[in-house]
Amino acid sequence: MLIIDCPYCGRRPEIEFTHGGEAHLVRPPQPAELSDQDWAAFLYMRSNTKGIYAERWRHARGCGQFFNALRDTTTDHFLSTYKSGTPRPVVNTTPSEEGHS
Amino acid sequence: MVSSMARLAPLVTTSEWMRALPFATRLILQGDAAARTAAAAVWGVSFSQIACRALSQGSRATLWLGPEEYLLLDMSDESASVATLEHAIGNIPHALVDISHRQIAIEISGPFAERILNGGCPLDLDLSAFPIGMCTRTVLAKAEIVLWRNRADAFHVEVWRSFTGYVAGLLREIAREYYPV
Ligand SMILES: [Zn+2]
What we know:
The complex is a heterodimer of chains A (101) and B (181). In chain A, a hairpin with a 3-residue loop joins strand 1 (3-6) and strand 2.
């Protein structure tokens, strides 16, 4: 089973977590001032990166908190997890020997 | 809790390794450190700053469930006063919810307690990884539980009431390996 490192609780099994979509999306402060196209882009368009992707996760059956994770979408390897509101960490992109840690 | 509300005993058959614990008062407190300090003064138990740790004093306990979410238990009293806590916390922003009837508690004990729980729970329950006093919300097969190790060989398991039959039945099946019928 995949082990995910919750920034609050530590290393926990995957089945305690739920996925929350792409991270670092900033909601426009005045949505009414946006064009329909820009608003639709905020709502629906995602980078859907093949490779290292920053995404939100929630420790739903643990502490209940949302946090962010860097995951390689080709290998499912989690490179880093960090609290919401903190910047995306810079990570070594060489695949780790640890693999599915 | 309102004592006139009739409560049915949970569907747990008592055995040498499993028993239902008595009805208790359960509260969920969400709030910051100021709210917790005010609550601790009347609840009589302080709140762990460390994640996944419970503190207890007599029949009362506080269990860390999240950074701002704690489960308060009084295992001896079915009607510990919510009003007293509300009064103590006063205007400090918080949420205090009585969930006494939502959950029941089961104790799993004995030399095989870890292995029986691991039949449905993927956490590392070795004493070095899950020491006495550790508590957490987690899963047991398809049910959400709160697991609290209060002795080396005993776990307090909080189960949502409608899952009691499922959880107790599953644990009974798992335990046949260690306690042949
Ligand atoms: Zn967590």
